[in-house]
Amino acid sequence: xxxxxxxxxxxxxxxxxxxxxxxxxxxxxxxxxxxxxxxxxxxxxxxxxxxxxxxxxxxxxxxxxxxxxxxxxxxxxxxxxxxxxxxxxxxxxxxxxxxxxxxxxxxxxxxxxxxxxxxxxxxxxxxxxxxxxxxxxxxxxxxxxxxxxxxxxxxxxxxxxxxxxxxxxxxxxxxxxxxxxxxxxxxxxxxxxxxxxxxxxxxxxxxxxxxxxxxxxxxxxxxxxxxxxxxxxxxxxxxxxxxxxxxxxxxxxxxxxxxxxxxxxxxxxxxxxxxxxxxxxxxxxxxxxxxxxxxxxxxxxxxxxxxxxxxxxxxxxxxxxxxxxxxxxxxxxxxxxxxxxxxxxxxxxxxxxxxxxxxxxxxxxxxxxxxxxxxxxxxxxxxxxxxxxxxxxxxxxxxxxxxxxxxxxxxxxxxxxxxxxxxxxxxxxxxxxxxxxxxxxxxxxxxxxxxxxxxxxxxxxxxxxxxxxxxxxxxxxxxxxxxxxxxxxxxxxxxxxxxxxxxxxxxxxxxxxxxxxxxxxxxxxxxxxxxxxxxxx
Length: 537
What we know:
Helix content: 25-40%
InterPro entries: Alkyl-DHAP_Synthase, FAD-bd_oxidored_4_C, FAD-bd_PCMH, FAD-bd_PCMH-like_sf, FAD-bd_PCMH_sub2, FAD-linked_Oxase-like_C, Oxid_FAD_bind_N, Vanillyl_alc_oxidase_C-sub2
Low-confidence stretches: none
Number of domains: 3
Pfam families: FAD-oxidase_C (PF02913), FAD_binding_4 (PF01565)
Structural class: alpha+beta
Strand content: 15-25%
CATH class of the largest domain: Alpha Beta
Number of strands: 18
Protein name: Alkyldihydroxyacetonephosphate synthase
GO biological process, one term: lipid biosynthetic process
Keywords: FAD, Flavoprotein
Number of helices: 18
Shape: globular
CATH superfamily of the largest domain: FAD-linked oxidase, cap domain/gating helix
Mean pLDDT: 94
């Protein structure tokens, strides 16, 4: 087994990522937000770490001692620091609550198992004593996926533990003949890439949460990376897995494809920790690319750019590795390059970024093929600068959100997907719903994941905070969810269901679909301890 050379640093407790990268918006940007949206600095400053309000630890000392007997005293933490850092995820409502000093949803303890057997033993103990368990990877959920229901029909628990998988962080094996690597779920994506790079390999999975999300989280939420056009979604990469449940262990996946009944991998991919805890992943890997090249193209409008993307996705030749299109508003604001937000208004039309990864010859061949299609579709080549700028700032947008929240703006993202023929209707429906719910917000959108049959839509919304920003966003989110369902989109392409999408997910799968999920839950987790309140309608 191989462990990463660098340790994973903790995320900012009340925001995103590296605390050193948190920055105040430049004065010209604050002035622009005030003029366009009426954004004003919050009346109350954000709470400091010492001002955070925590509920008392509910777990009795004998249970804490029993957990420590399984994983070791040093791996059961009930201190304020551990509890606060494992409170909720990183959605805008999550961050607004933390900035207000509200940690009422904090777990009672954080448990860090070091092996599959320890995970299984913790689940057995918690099921016996009715302790809710929230599997915790990088803590990057933006759909309320890390808040356990403590009471009501789903609750009545003795307490809640966050099951942090950070110690399960090893590369177990590499099969270079089959191009399969076995890795543990607590590896953060950069650590996994570091370990695979030593073998000349890559996963090719680079979502916006890349710097902090874990492999287990990718699988549990059906993550899709920014290079999905070339490498596929994360669930496409999962050849097999080991899962611990309160009822026992499952070993799933022994061949690339099988006709031996329904594929049980699909039960746990996207399950968000409600059915079991993934303790090992056998993943399809690729050879690390020799060349990475990104470039920009301009299209007159979003419809023209989307049509060009569809042609690339449906052609017989492989599409670009990265393919994303910003609508007119996102292009005007310059959100494709978050670090240069102040340079808004430079470009008209819509910016398309195309990226190519592979050998020198393969990259050149695919660039030429794509260029022919894009030119014929009306695209204007902008050269490498816009593509390189996007690549350099591709993980910066969450930091920008923190800066906007601090300035007094409500800013959040949501995403969906549908078939190509329905894309214009879905795009208009969600935009109109957000405009109707928020008055005069800034609504931006891009397409970042394409398939032969359809694509995703990723919206970013910015508006001035009201006196009740949580209620403000809740109303907008309800309106957007209803619009997505009514317009025929899926409630989530890659963020997952969590708690925020549960009602809309129920509408999407219907009553019988909900019964099926509840039946699986009752069989695998009869005590209902695994992430209660998440996913299951």
